[in-house]
Amino acid sequence: MSLERGMISSRQVMFLVTNMIFATEIQFVPALLTMYAGQDAWVVVLIVTIVGFLFGVPIISLGLRFPGKTPVEYGMDLLGKWGGRALGIFLGLFFFYVAAVAVRELADHLVIAVMPQTPLVVFIALYVFAIAYGVYLGLEVFARVSEILYPVFLGTLMLGTIFLIPSLNLNLLKPVLTHSPLELLRGSLTLLAFYGEGLAILFLIPCMRRPEQAPGLNMKITLLLNIPLLVMVVMEVAMFGAMETSRILFPSFELVKMISVAGFFERMESFLLAFWVTTVCLKVALLYYTAMISFARSLNLRDYRPLVWPGAVSLTALAVLVFSDVTQAREFLARSWPLFGLSVEGGVPILLYSLALLRKKGVSWRGRQKK
Amino acid sequence: MIYFNLLLIIVIGGAVSLFEVPGLLQPEKRGELIAFSCFLLIGMALAVAMTLRLPVPNPTSGIEFVFNPVTKLIFPGR
Amino acid sequence: MKRALKSMSVVKRLCLVLAIILLPNICAGCWDRVELEQLAYVTVVGIDRDGPDGVLVTFQCVIPRMLARGQSGGGGGAAPVKPYTNYSVKARNVSDAVRLFEIKQPHKALFKTSTVIIIGEDLARKGVIPSLDFFTRKPALRRSVWVMVAEGKAADILLKGDPSPEIIPANNIRTAFQRRQDVTLTSSVDFGQLLSKLERPGVDPFMPEIKLAPKLSGGTAGQGETSTQDQQKDVKEGEKQVLEIVDFGVLKLGKLVSFLDITESRGLLWLQGKTNSGTITVPARGASWASLLVSSKRVKITPVISQDGFLFNIDIRIEGYVSSVQNEAVDPTKPEDLGRLEEEGEKAILQDVMAAVKKSQEVRSDFLGLGEKIYETDPDLWKEIGEAWRDEWLPNVQVDISVNCKLKRTGLAAGPVQPIP
Q1: Distance (Å, whole) CA C65 – CA C172
Q2: Does the residue A352 lie in any domain?
Q3: Most CB within 10 Å of its CB: which of A94, A355, C24, C148?
Q4: How high is the ipTM of this complex?
Q5: Are strands C146-150 and C206-214 parallel, antiparallel or unpaired?
Q6: Domain count of the fold of chain C
């Protein structure tokens, strides 16, 4: 029996996950990539497109091996009752932490770039309130919202950047491939750690109306993520130069500020900001939902809803606490987060998948189709 | 100002309890009630501690510390 | 809806009521509200050097109230009130200056309306980076704001510059700039471009130069004197001076080293591929001139690296049309005459470009971005020579310039006017 009655379509899963990854990725990744790989940042995006696609394969087949079950439940099957519970609590804490980081990043951005005099905690509290309300209403609700909003967001962003093409200087992308493999690896790890947040898809597969559509999702999500990212990275380097892109805190925001068509179609950044607030909201909603489901399953509760509001209080406090200042945030995202994120996002599915194969638990998707 | 903030936290905690607890007062929902209380207590404790400016450990610093040996290898400081 | 309300518990209904009461409070106000009346709309910022380590920052602000008055009463002929004011502040750095500015007058400085940052010559020679740092951190300022370097003091330009025919100097600058860009006298450099050039290997930034010129010689081309219609009136107000934006100041590693003259500036523009209907006047047959209106179509710079040093093949392709011939013997419809004009045009452009290259070698500033081309083609070599590029290698590079000028049209007329005996 699933905790969440809500049934969602495979397209909703696609938009939910893409939206979740893209929302924060687009804010920070271009600066981090150019910091490590300079003007070769686009090569890193290409590498991660391939690696990310492969990364998604075991995750999705793991989810399909245990139809209708969340990772906590099949964690219990594989690791024993207490092992599974511990894993559930750990995953819950991880997603909770990532949610707090995402809220804090956006609030920091709003304070730095838009409203410098408003206290940080006000943004965080109002934001968490909206998120908690959405999560309380259920997965279906914010799945539908992201299905509507994300394509609009992406479309507007891409349409806006078309106007920047005349002012780009593609020479700034030269010389090509001058960075060492180690520098490219650093960039790839950073990007993959953001990409790995897609692990939350494990909690969505059991809620899918038609799980048989899941296998193609990793391909769709990877393309839907990386093509816009590639466009943005190339544009930012061709607009500001690699050095300058890595120095700017929010290069995508600066890029959109540059849009000016015939002197009257400008100041697009307010649109971007509005969409950012909504997409990050949806991102945090999904992460928070995942955390709550994890906790509820581990504590053997029938419903996750009683945890939502008290959890929101903790989320607000944690978001204020999580970074002492912007420098720490940037330092963490650039150095510790890739390793921390990847060790959880890669470690957990690999552990579960190899255990499932070794102990021959669950039925593989292909095996079930043959029957 | 601190007292006002504390009052605000207590009001929020009270509102959340008022909203949620009546539905949880059935014997078969004991587990939920306990989990709810624990979560709310943790959150309130955290918020109160931060309002009173007590030294609350920063989780990010902890993670940075744990991963520091590996971080140094792959991402040497700039 | 009614049923939904009925089925709600009392507590839930109370919560709903509470939310309805509380939410409008959030909408009503926030910390970052701005009142339009309490803002100083900074349009131009001028930064000068003041003493060994201080800056003199001049803020030019429009006064919206005066602006409205000026427009309604402008036609009357009565002396209009200036709709702008200047505040000069001596401070340690720009940020400090903004603080002092906000002490000096009651309003909060708003930089969203800024069009131009003007840097005084003295300060630019000392280095532009320290004073620009403030603007990279200021959220309200966009990277598309223009930067210029003043000949002399930036404060003088703001205080003495006459905005006519506009009423606000910033508008005057903007209009003049766009116009002069169209006719290839200068080109805008925005803040973002300046920063990305500063941080790019093998290229030095250049900035358009702004200066005050006496009103009588309004011409900018240097080849001729033009006189304005209302000479008489201007002689009376002799101290008023016009803003002139022409030529460039070039930097070396973030410090101004020299101003270019008109030929060198033209050469720089040809190489940037940024020319758009620039007029070149070339000798036609006999003692007469022909004018060509041309714009650059393609510029290609390829470095050839050999044992002896560096050679740059510069290939410029220009297209345009004949705008004037002063000699009835020259007929632009005849292929050989047109060919001759094309050749003359090529020669003129070649001279411009050569002058720019010479200047670059002379002042040892790579504002043409030749080093960048080496960095792009051979980054490893650049690592070795990059440090010494400007002082040791640049003065000795060879350039091989080929200009290809194609005249496609002859304006509205075909041949020249022929008097019939």
Answers
A1: 19
A2: yes
A3: C148
A4: 0.90
A5: parallel
A6: 2
